[in-house]
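Bumping my old thread because nobody answered last time. Still need a sequence for this structure:
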């Protein structure tokens, strides 16, 4: 029974993360990159992001696991929902999404991949989706929850320096190679101690008290914040 519950939890997490990753890729493939650059500040941010990724590849190619764009972290820890120690409950990203909320709702019935960038229907749909994701509802029951959550780092500080502030996102490439996830799938993290050697797209665990609080950053909007967070590397079995 325990193994069945574990398998079900893994499948549920994989489905949710694949759906969110697919949504981001659909936006990108459908000409959505124009609003992504506009949101992030244009060519300057695009170049900065590419330099960040290049430094990460050069500095950590040997030690850093390889992930594909849109890939989520697999569970290799206790069953989500279990107490991870110290009163912190390990959760899935699903827990941050209100029941019934659909990230693809603004794109229903549209085949953006078949539309040209200048098509008014595509532009309107993408602008609607952008606002919809930025205003994504949060799960109020998570306010004040003591949790532990794995994800990828999107640094809000200088790469190559000890960072203390970053966004945690559920899949590789978010905010860098594809548009940001919905705000309810982004946690604004303020680390309790400077993180030496941590780079954008490094996989980590965060642990602390989650709060419902929206923030706008140059790399994307977040619906949650975790202050004084404990941050540790995420080590995936088999990589």
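Sorry it took so long. Here it is:
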């Amino acid at each position: 029974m325990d193994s069945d519950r574990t398998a079900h939890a893994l499948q549920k997490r994989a489905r949710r993360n694949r759906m969110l990753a697919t949504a981001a890729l659909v936006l990108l493939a459908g000409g959505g990159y124009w609003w992504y650059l506009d949101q992030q500040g244009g060519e300057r941010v695009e170049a900065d992001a590419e330099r960040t990724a290049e430094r990460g590849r050069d500095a950590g190619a040997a030690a850093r696991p390889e992930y594909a764009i849109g890939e989520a972290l697999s569970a290799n820890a206790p069953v989500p929902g279990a107490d991870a120690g110290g009163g912190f409950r390990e959760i899935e990203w699903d827990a941050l999404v209100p029941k019934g909320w659909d990230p693809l709702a603004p794109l229903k019935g549209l085949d953006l991949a078949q539309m040209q960038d200048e098509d008014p229907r595509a532009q309107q749909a993408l602008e609607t989706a952008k606002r919809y994701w930025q205003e994504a509802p949060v799960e109020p029951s998570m306010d004040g929850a003591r949790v532990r959550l794995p994800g990828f780092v999107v640094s809000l500080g200088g790469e190559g320096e000890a960072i203390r502030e970053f966004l945690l996102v559920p899949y590789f490439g978010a905010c860098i190679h594809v548009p940001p996830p919905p705000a309810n799938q982004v946690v604004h993290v303020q680390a309790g101690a400077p993180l030496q050697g941590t780079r954008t797209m490094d996989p980590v665990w965060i642990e602390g008290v989650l709060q419902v609080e929206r923030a706008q950053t140059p790399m994307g909007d977040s619906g949650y914040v975790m202050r004084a967070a404990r941050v540790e590397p995420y080590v995936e079995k088999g990589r």
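Confidence is low (pLDDT under 50) at residues 28-53, 55-62. Let me know if any region looks off to you.
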